[in-house]
Automatic annotation (TrEMBL):
The lineage of its organism: Bacteria, Bacillati, Actinomycetota, Actinomycetes, Jiangellales. The keyword Transmembrane applies. This is Dolichyl-phosphate-mannose-protein mannosyltransferase. The chain crosses the membrane at residues 118-135, 141-159, 166-184, 190-219, 231-250, 262-283, 290-306, 312-332, 344-366. It comes from the Bacteria. Keywords: Membrane, Transmembrane, Transmembrane helix. It comes from Jiangella alkaliphila.
């Protein structure tokens, strides 16, 4: 037998001397949740941060100026400021008030609607984050998701709508959240009920968003495989769709916010490319629910014709912004997989041509529509009119205005009972058909107190919102017809007219004004022959026409007995065609003499006391209140003409 040599170490004689190594488990790594989060989401955050900065800058640049304030915005902000909303009936206003109230937005802003638009900036930034999450969950590449965010935030149509204080913009947030939760592949027992709850909040915020609910359910249906769950989701989608479409179709005539023709002028590119991209997105399973929702919204906008709820368009904008780059990305990936086939070259040429045409269309239309939103100031006439009213109309004055101006006037001290929104006046009653004999007569409606008639008010402020009102209101129509312009700001469709209401009729007021001009013209004719008063050319023409406040005529007559001055009669802002009630006296020898003249003016008895006197060196400027009492000047001889 062959001996073998062992290489193992010899065992100790005493087993107690045996010491085996005890295995030690390695210490588990310490959890670092922040580092892990940045490792997973760092690239998305690096893309999203500059997009949020761009979105905030573009939205904030001129958001308080353009677009022009709408009547619905003024009404919403006024209800928030007055606390005239409830969680049950005005969930959208409640969500806006959650930012406007605690942040003090109304106190910071010069106008109430501008404070409300500050909340819309927060809504837009949250919407950008949710749109990015939805795009990434649908498998959209980061560059394509960035394009979707730019379309959602910077396109002219989207920027115009996002700046307006509308509850529909808040409902978009909940809709995007519902879509994002519906794409969950893990923790579906939690994500799907949360998606349903988000969709319910969106529908309570704006009922029209019920239309989108079936497609959120469709998105959930794609994520599950169990037959029982699919049947349940199909039933929920059918019920939500039936209710949503019935509501929208019945309310198309009542929720009108614009026409497709008007929206077309803002952004024809997105309105054309969006539905086309939705049609292409139907080829790809993950994008089909979003594409179906967009095509349904487009049909509801286009098919009925005429006025359509603006909520439909606001709901369609984020979906179109998402589908345009998402469908393009999927098509590019599919074409790259076809390289080497005969049909690859024609498809590449067609795709390149379409992309070039899209770039040219954007370059040709977007700058022209974005420039007014970023640079122009259509709100300036409204702000000037408000300053004029605050300076010239007593706080107890009675005015008929729109909601945007009313909110600002109430903040400046006007009484709520004296500033009436024109929408308070009822619409004209159309003659009804004769009931057949024996028909049941309906019970009279509950008593609804109406505001005082138009003759009880002093001024009516004619704005674009008031003139564009489609409702025929006889009181408003009569107030506009039986009034004359006192001050006018701006021009064109955006002009603001402050009109004095004449209870006895416009013809009577114009006849009285013509008689007053004849009386003033005769008196100023005497002043023009006075060598102590040197009128400039414009002041001479105004004096000859009799368009001078009679208080100025008497004051200048008194002053001519002690001083030789140069006289100018400038028009106050907005009163170019009205009676001149401001006088500029210059050519005084010293500053002390100018100060003595100013004190002399302030010492005149009422109604000859100026409302404001300013001195600048040897120049004195005196301004009188808006309305002068009649009968201050004697009637001219009958044989004299002005």
């Amino acid at each position: 037998m062959r001996d073998t040599v062992s290489t193992l170490p010899a065992l100790p004689r005493d087993l107690d001397e045996l010491r085996l190594p005890i295995p030690v488990q390695p210490r588990p790594p310490r959890p670092r949740p922040v580092r892990e989060w940045f490792r997973r989401n760092g690239p998305d955050f690096a893309w999203l941060a500059p997009l949020l900065t761009l979105t905030g800058f573009v939205h904030a640049a001129g958001m308080a100026r353009a677009p022009a304030f709408a009547e619905v915005e003024g009404e919403a902000v006024a209800r928030i400021a007055d606390g005239a909303w409830s969680f049950s009936g005005d969930l959208g206003l409640a969500q806006l008030a959650a930012w406007i109230g605690p942040s003090g937005a109304l106190d910071r802003a010069s106008q109430a609607v501008a404070g409300g638009r500050e909340a819309m900036l927060v809504v837009l930034l949250l919407g950008v984050v949710l749109l990015w999450i939805l795009a990434r969950r649908l498998g959209v590449a980061r560059p394509a998701a960035a394009v979707a965010v730019v379309l959602f935030a910077v396109s002219p149509l989207a920027l115009h709508l996002h700046r307006m204080v509308l509850a529909e913009n808040v409902a978009v947030l909940w809709t995007l959240l519902a879509f994002a939760l519906a794409t969950a592949r893990r923790r579906q027992p939690v994500a799907f009920p949360a998606a349903a709850a988000a969709m319910v909040v969106a529908a309570l915020t704006q009922t029209t968003f019920l239309v989108v609910a079936p497609f959120v359910v469709w998105m959930m249906w794609q994520q599950v495989t169990a037959r029982a769950w699919r049947l349940v989701l199909a039933g929920v989608a059918t019920a939500a769709g039936a209710g949503g479409y019935a509501y929208v179709l019945m309310s198309l005539g009542d929720l009108g916010g614009g026409t497709p023709e008007r929206w077309w002028t803002l952004d024809p590119v997105l309105l054309v490319v969006g539905p086309v991209a939705a049609g292409a997105a139907l080829l790809f399973r993950p994008l089909r629910p979003v594409a179906g929702a967009l095509l349904t919204l487009v049909l509801l906008i286009v098919v009925p014709g005429g006025s359509a709820p603006v909520a439909l368009l606001i709901a369609a904008v984020p979906l179109a912004a998402l589908l345009v780059p998402a469908a393009a990305h999927r098509l590019v990936v599919r074409m790259l997989s076809m390289r080497g086939r005969p049909e690859a070259t024609p498809l590449a040429i067609m795709s390149t041509t379409a992309a070039a045409a899209l770039v040219v269309a954007v370059a040709a239309t977007w700058p022209g529509e974005l420039r007014p939103l970023l640079r122009e100031d259509p709100v300036a006439p409204v702000e000037q009119a408000e300053r004029w009213l605050e300076a010239n109309v007593p706080r107890e004055g009675r005015l008929v205005v729109d909601h945007t101006i009313r909110a600002d006037l109430l903040r400046s001290g006007f009484s709520a009972g004296g500033v009436l929104p024109f929408t308070s006046y009822p619409a004209a009653e159309s003659p009804g058909e004769l009931l057949p004999l024996g028909a049941t007569v309906a019970a009279p409606p509950a008593f609804d107190p109406r505001p005082p008639g138009w003759t009880h008010y002093d001024y009516i402020v004619s704005t674009a919102a008031l003139r564009d009102d489609d409702t025929d209101r006889p009181d408003v129509r009569a107030a506009l017809a039986e009034s004359t312009v006192v001050a006018e700001f701006g021009s064109g469709d955006g002009r603001v007219e402050i009109r004095a209401i004449h209870p006895l009729g416009r013809d009577v007021a114009e006849a009285v004004a013509a008689d007053d001009r004849r009386t003033v013209g005769y008196a100023t004719g005497q002043l023009l022959r006075n060598d102590a008063l040197r009128f400039d050319a414009d002041a001479r023409a105004v004096a000859e026409a009799g368009r001078v406040d009679p208080r100025l005529v008497i004051i200048l007559g008194k002053l001519s007995g002690t001083h030789e001055v140069d006289v100018a009669l400038p028009a106050l802002p907005g009163e170019d065609a009205g009676v001149r009630r401001q006088v500029v006296l210059s050519g005084l020898p010293t500053e002390d003499e100018a100060a003595r003249v100013a004190l002399w003016l302030l010492g005149q008895p009422p109604p000859f006391t100026p409302s404001q006197v300013d001195t600048d060196g040897t120049t004195v400027t005196a301004t009188y209140s808006l309305t002068a009492p009649r009968g201050l000047l004697p009637d001219p001889p009958q044989h004299d003409s002005p």
